[in-house]
Amino acid sequence: MTRTTLQAVRGMHDILPEQCRYFAHLEEVTREVLTGYGYEEIRLPLVESTELFKRTIGEVTDIVEKEMYTFEDRNGDSLSLRPEGTAGCVRAAIENGLLHNQTQRLWYAGPMFRHERPQKGRYRQFHQFGVETFGMAGPDIDAELILLSRRLWQRLGIEGVRLEINSLGSPAARADYRRRLVEYLSDHQANLDEDSRRRLHGNPLRILDSKNPAMQDIILGAPRLLDALDAESQSHFEQLRHLLDAAGVAYHINARLVRGLDYYTKTVFEWTTDRLGAQGTVCAGGRYDGLVEQLGGRSTAAAGFAMGVERLVSLLEEGAAPPPFVAPDFYLAVVGEEAERHGVVWAEAFRGACPALRLLVNCGGGGFKAQLKRADKSGAAFALVLGEDEVRAGRVGVKPLRQDSPQREWEWSALLEALAGTSSAEVARILLQH
Ligand code: ATP
Ligand code: MG
Fold this sequence. Notes:
alpha+beta
């Protein structure tokens, strides 16, 4: 029988150890910043009922029309892999009673799934950090979300991301505007591309977002939603701008920023870079005051954003070497059967006494030389050498691998005593001064 090698599903990638260091660094810093602003983690299922996404994201959106991984489970229910996190988060907040007379600042992280055409910065399984807030209606929380993301870029050393903001107004103002936009676009129907003609009645605002150069003149001439805002949205937007000005955040007002999902109201924003080619949006969000009610909850103000982890990692990779590999402090070489048996037990005692130190135990046998080679390759600072003689004498050889210094014998118990409770940084000083 011939065996073919199997490959990962198109657009779904393995993240190998070296790249994981960037991911882990990003996750760590993001967690720290979010915690610092008082946000709490929530963990949500990867699979939800298809209906949830249809009702939140909107039937006539790219995501729901053509990007979802939808399947029937064994009961015949239609389920989908989550293409984004807001829908599930709102569902969970309502279902678990998190919205009754209280505010919430929540975040989540994990994979999202969209059946898009894979290319750099666009995958079928990708990762997001998402942030959602509930119960705060003013522009102060919009500003906080933007400031929080700015702090994140600063902490990560990511430069050159640019903030674009816009307001989509109240649903009523938007409906009004939408009528006028459809009128205008219908007058230019002959010049619309195929995508735009398809969207004309289903999702006309999305036409403003078209990247097709041939469409740009029509788009530039279109009426602007920003000029047709209701008074409340207008004042909300002005206050947000004051807050951003006061905090020294540079932004560009982009009247054509509409976002792909139906649920946004008032503020929307995106952080973009031109260093990632066409996939330049690294973080996007806004206010969605109608969504909780739309899903059967009590009317609740809400705002949030999601950032694309792969795109941010690309920026990190461009900027700097990966966060350093954390090498073990010790590599325990165990030569001979007797030593192998004892080595397992000694290593556990060592880990119990020195929980902050990293110890790698040689597995799979091998002679003294071969094991020392592995020790060197592991990056360990010291080799611990355990042979039959050492076991019998209750001793261990300590061989510095990164310093030109001779191997010394230690009583096993004295070594544990000397190292108990210490950190990696102290190990060399303790062992070399003896
Ligand atoms: P785009 O305009 O790039 O398609 P979007 O508006 O569909 O983005 P959102 O739904 O707002 O994206 O998701 C938030 C962020 O998640 C995006 O800004 C981006 O960084 C990231 N993202 C979205 N889709 C993908 C994907 N297929 N692969 C990798 N990252 C993605
Ligand atoms: Mg998209």
